[in-house]
């Protein structure tokens, strides 16, 4: 991971177009001058119409912005995808088994594979979940795995998002926009569909309804409300699934069961796809000052009368400190070697590793254990001496609060920018559904750092998105 | 449908209608103040207009002296006035956002565009002659929203709740406009039938966009009695009390059909209807116009209360 | 011995409450040291309650009342037969793994001075725990400690009875013991229950239990400086006094009030 040029998704080191991109490259060549810039302009208009709410909410309130969309798709071959999806499925199965275990017998702790205190003393560990038996044994039903690529066959998992991953609406809207912008491309290239996601989401949610539900379960999406930055996504998914979009005040618990208040009286609710964080779900069990949740919801859950998706307490499985143990977790529960690699991670509580980290901080990435969204992190190579000194102090003061990784040379993908087409760094977040079976949508959200050389793809920090194509055989 | 969704749809329509009506009221108040030839008459008209809108106390609390500029600002831009055009548009949009999945894209776009355009307007640019232009724009935007609603929304319970909100608000407003005339006249009973009186009645008609249709119905000069008849008892007049009450009744009946159940609100709205259907102008004036209107407004409010209880608004 | 218990509480919901939900941790379980002969929990709506075991193995009644009017009373009554086993409970099945009770909580934070000197005693866990019980009494109890003087730590917002004042002091000592044990990598948990007497007024009480890989769970009462005897009735267990609060309600108005507690030999 030195000075060599990063892996490019489209071009080999010698400049030849890689196989999966051949048809696209040819199509781009055939386009008259300015065609791409016109497409880029059209894309703006389409997004304003399609995803009208991306744009307009933000224009006066600053809560939601139109996230830039790049017209050049990111392509993954069928072979590459098969390997990726096998690896992803392996991970989500193992992590769900891990969740079941830490909230029951804790065999993995007894076996000494993970330090006991790292789990039970972790802020993300939810003691109230001990002994809960969720339907089908699934804790995390909706997962977005962050993957980066550094070479032709080298994929690393950066993070397993097992709480309430967002962004799936962008995956769907990006595809819809792309099909409007370049329908002829879809005639030439067979791309696996992502439009099945809402239907699969619905099936997944139905499959994990409490065992005592007769007939088709009633599903709702629980949102914190219109002021939440992902509100558009919540209403979009509810709409696409044909489920009610509820706020906490729309639900109540009576006789240990959950109901929604409808114009014709209470209606029983069986499955709640909640987009409210654990802490705010239920003021009786969690934060007493929460106005967003439903009093007694956790009790109804505990009594087995409703399914919460995802279950509370799944954060223990995507905790940054637990991340380093995922290969051991896979081996412990599945008896398999992990297919996808973890990014090598330094443990600062180990004296030798900490010494290395402090000496080489300028080459490394430092992340706060409980941080997210690109905040509370240091990217060594682009940081100032002052920032480095500050993080050194922080690490020395609380070594357990940080994980440190080498700076990965994220792959680049041709991207349409002001100066024309230029390589920009990308990552990938495929979406996984776990219920009666594991369903992985072929594709995902490709985030792209639009600033030249930047490795930060977060939309809050100047990242954009691309449509992500998985080729069919 | 969630009770909250029904409530949001009801209030969404009410607020759009109210924004339009506030613009109408201000237009009338403004024009009346221009016609005043007495010392202090300008403020008097503006204040009685605010009394009709039930925002006079809120205005007093601002500590400002009532003149065309301060009152126009208060009625259009003041967020402290819960009925100002701005507050109404904001409330309408917030309600719409909460029920984003229950309204159509056209409805959303119309409302959202109105809000975005409105928020670009700087209050200091809207004085004097520009004020009337802005008030017209508000009315047009309201018409556009209603058009989007009527043209695109499914005719289900959601439609019924929207319509109910629309007609409850419109009935309330027409009653208030009529009552404003009463307030204006009260201290100057000697003017009844005079030029000024006629002029004011004309403005009342204009406030209801009814000055031309009046001619079609009555083939007569403006007479107080006819005008009151037009705005209260004429079923063909789409802002009259009887029209609104009948529409409200029909709307609630359709809810009873959809849900297969009659509830308390159905009796209350039937009473409201009966109040304006089984009466004559003689009876209304005999009872006292103000008293009649006050009772109507109270019964109309009772419809909202009952609707909330019957369909679980919260 | 047979002990009869009567425990009465009340909650006054704020006016215009639409739905009050409350969970009751008011049902003791039979185990090595006690057998529940009969027990009943009464409150409005109890017939419609959801009943289940919580994360710590306690029996929970989850009750709600739509549009409650006035105070809601809750009464637990029953008879429990206890036996003296020097506090040894063994390794009951169906309970969460002891490792769970290594988790530190706000109430169980303790200074290193409380436990530091026991670090060398880890091989004699039973001896360590007894020494720790004595030490906690010395450091946190002190000679001047009198009923009710220590900061209320029992998670109840109102203390009214003599028994409750004692319970607050007992909770403080138990938390000290639990925090120290956990810091020494020994799983320890809080027990809320009733005390018959022993020179003390009968009523609510709280103590601790620590885990030994050989003997299983063992009770320690740092307030009385003994292992629990047949005078102790276990009601429920948890990470600390807060997680064993007998009644928790939303909205809880002015809090949960204890009306009466009686503990008598039956």
UniProtKB/TrEMBL annotation, chain A:
Residues 73-449 form the Circularly permuted ATP-grasp type domain. Transmembrane segments: none annotated. It comes from the Bacteria. Gene3D superfamilies: 3.30.1490.270, 3.40.50.11290. This is Circularly permuted ATP-grasp type 2 domain-containing protein. It comes from Devosia nitrariae.
UniProtKB/TrEMBL annotation, chain B:
Pfam families: Alpha-E. Residues 1-311 form the DUF403 domain. InterPro entries: ATP-dep_Glu-Cys_Ligase-2, DUF403. Transmembrane segments: none annotated. It comes from the Bacteria. This is DUF403 domain-containing protein. It comes from Devosia nitrariae.
From TrEMBL, chain C:
Residues 162-224 form the Transglutaminase-like domain. This is Transglutaminase. It comes from Devosia nitrariae. Gene3D superfamilies: 3.10.620.30. Transmembrane segments: none annotated.
């Amino acid at each position: 991971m030195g000075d060599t040029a990063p892996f490019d998704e489209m071009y080999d080191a010698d400049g030849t177009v890689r196989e999966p991109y051949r048809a696209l490259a040819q199509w781009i060549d055939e386009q008259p001058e300015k065609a791409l810039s016109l497409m880029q302009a059209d894309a703006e208009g389409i997004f304003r119409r399609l995803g009208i709410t991306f744009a307009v909410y933000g224009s006066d309130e600053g809560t939601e912005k139109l996230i830039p969309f790049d017209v050049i798709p990111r392509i993954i071959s069928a072979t590459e995808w098969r390997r990726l999806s096998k690896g992803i499925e392996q991970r989500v199965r193992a992590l769900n088994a891990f969740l079941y275990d830490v909230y029951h017998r804790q065999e993995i702790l007894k076996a000494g594979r993970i330090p006991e205190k790292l789990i039970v003393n972790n802020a993300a560990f939810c003691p109230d979940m001990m002994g809960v038996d969720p339907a089908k044994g699934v804790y995390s039903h909706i997962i977005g795995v962050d993957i980066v690529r550094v070479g032709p066959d080298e994929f690393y998992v950066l993070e397993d998002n097992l709480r309430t991953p967002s962004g799936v609406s962008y995956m769907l809207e990006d595809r819809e926009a792309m099909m409007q912008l370049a329908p002829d491309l879809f005639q030439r290239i067979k791309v696996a569909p992502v439009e099945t996601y809402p239907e699969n989401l619905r099936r997944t949610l139905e499959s994990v309804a409490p065992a005592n539900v007769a007939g088709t379960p009633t599903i709702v999406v629980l949102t914190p409300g219109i002021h939440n930055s992902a509100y558009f996504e919540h209403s979009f998914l509810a709409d696409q699934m044909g489920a009610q979009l509820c706020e906490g005040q729309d639900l109540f618990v009576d006789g240990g069961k959950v109901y929604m208040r409808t114009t014709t009286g209470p209606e029983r609710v069986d499955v709640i796809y909640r987009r409210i964080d654990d802490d705010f779900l239920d003021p009786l069990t969690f934060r007493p000052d929460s106005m967003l949740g439903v009093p007694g919801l956790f009790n109804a859950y505990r009594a087995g009368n409703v399914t919460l998706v995802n279950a509370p307490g799944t954060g223990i499985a995507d905790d940054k400190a637990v991340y380093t143990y995922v290969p051991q977790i896979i081996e412990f529960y599945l008896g398999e070697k992990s297919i996808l690699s973890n990014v090598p991670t330094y443990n600062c509580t180990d004296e030798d590793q900490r010494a290395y980290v402090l000496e080489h901080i300028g080459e490394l990435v430092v992340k706060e254990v409980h941080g997210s969204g690109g905040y509370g992190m240091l990217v060594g190579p682009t940081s100032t001496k002052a920032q480095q000194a500050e993080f050194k102090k922080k690490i020395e003061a609380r070594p357990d609060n940080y994980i440190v990784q080498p700076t990965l040379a994220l792959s680049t993908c041709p991207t349409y920018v002001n100066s024309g087409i230029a390589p920009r760094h990308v990552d990938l977040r495929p979406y996984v559904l776990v219920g009666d079976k594991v369903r992985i949508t072929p594709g995902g959200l490709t985030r792209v750092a639009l600033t030249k050389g930047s490795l930060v793809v977060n939309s809050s920090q100047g990242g954009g998105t691309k449509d992500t194509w998985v080729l069919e055989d | 449908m969630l009770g909250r969704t029904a409530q949001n749809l009801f209030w969404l329509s009410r607020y759009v209608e109210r924004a339009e009506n506030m613009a109408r009221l201000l237009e009338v108040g403004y024009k009346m103040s221009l016609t005043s030839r007495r010392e202090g008459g300008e403020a008097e008209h503006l204040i009685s207009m605010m009394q009709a809108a039930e925002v006079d106390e809120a205005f007093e609390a601002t500590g400002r002296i009532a003149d065309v500029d301060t009152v126009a600002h208060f009625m259009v831009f003041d967020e402290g006035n819960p009925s100002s055009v701005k507050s109404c548009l904001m409330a309408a949009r917030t309600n719409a956002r909460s029920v984003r999945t229950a309204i159509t894209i056209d409805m959303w776009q119309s409302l959202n565009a109105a809000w975005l355009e409105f928020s670009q307007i700087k209050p200091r640019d809207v004085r004097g002659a520009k004020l009337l232009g802005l008030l017209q724009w508000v009315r047009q935007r309201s018409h556009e929203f209603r058009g989007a609603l009527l043209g695109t929304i499914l005719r289900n319970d959601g439609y019924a709740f929207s319509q109910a909100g629309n007609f409850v608000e419109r009935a309330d407003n027409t009653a208030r406009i009529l009552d404003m005339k009463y307030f204006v006249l009260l201290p100057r009973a000697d003017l009844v039938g005079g030029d000024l009186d006629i002029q004011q009645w004309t403005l009342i008609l204009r406030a209801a966009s009814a000055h031309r249709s009046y001619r079609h119905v009555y083939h007569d000069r403006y007479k107080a009695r006819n005008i009151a008849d037009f705005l209260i008892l004429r079923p063909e007049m789409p802002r009259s009390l009887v029209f609104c009450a009948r529409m409200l009744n029909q709307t609630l009946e359709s809810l009873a059909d959809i849900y297969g159940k009659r509830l308390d609100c159905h009796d209350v709205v039937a009473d409201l209807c009966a109040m304006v259907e089984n009466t004559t102008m003689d009876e209304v004036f005999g009872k006292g116009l103000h008293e009649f209107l006050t009772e109507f407004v109270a019964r109309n409010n009772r419809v909202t209360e009952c609707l909330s209880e019957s369909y679980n608004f919260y | 011995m047979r002990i009869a218990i009567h425990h009465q509480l009340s909650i006054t919901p704020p006016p215009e409450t639409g739905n009050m939900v409350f969970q009751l941790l008011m049902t003791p379980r039979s185990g090595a040291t006690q057998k529940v002969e009969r027990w009943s929990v009464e409150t409005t709506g109890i017939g419609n309650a959801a009943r289940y075991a919580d994360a710590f193995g306690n029996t929970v009644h989850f009750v709600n009342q739509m549009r409650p009017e006035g105070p809601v009373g809750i009464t637990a009554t029953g008879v429990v037969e206890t036996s003296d086993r020097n506090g040894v409970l063994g390794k009951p099945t169906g309970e969460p793994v002891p490792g769970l009770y290594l988790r530190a909580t706000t109430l169980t934070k303790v200074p290193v001075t409380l436990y530091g000197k026991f670090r060398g005693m880890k091989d004699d866990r039973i001896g360590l725990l007894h020494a720790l019980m004595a030490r906690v009494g010395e450091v946190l109890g002190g000679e001047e400690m009198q009923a009710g003087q220590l900061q209320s730590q029992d998670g109840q917002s109102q203390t009214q009875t003599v028994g409750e004042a004692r319970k607050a002091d007992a909770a403080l000592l138990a938390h000290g013991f639990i925090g120290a044990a956990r810091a020494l990598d020994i799983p320890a948990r809080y027990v809320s229950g009733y005390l018959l007497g022993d020179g003390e007024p009968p009523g609510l009480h709280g103590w601790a239990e620590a885990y030994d890989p050989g003997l299983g769970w063992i009770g320690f009462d740092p307030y009385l400086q003994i292992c629990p005897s047949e005078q102790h009735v276990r009601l429920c267990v948890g990470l600390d006094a807060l997680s064993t609060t007998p009644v928790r309600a939303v909205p809880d108005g002015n809090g949960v009030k204890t009306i009466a507690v009686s503990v008598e030999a039956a």
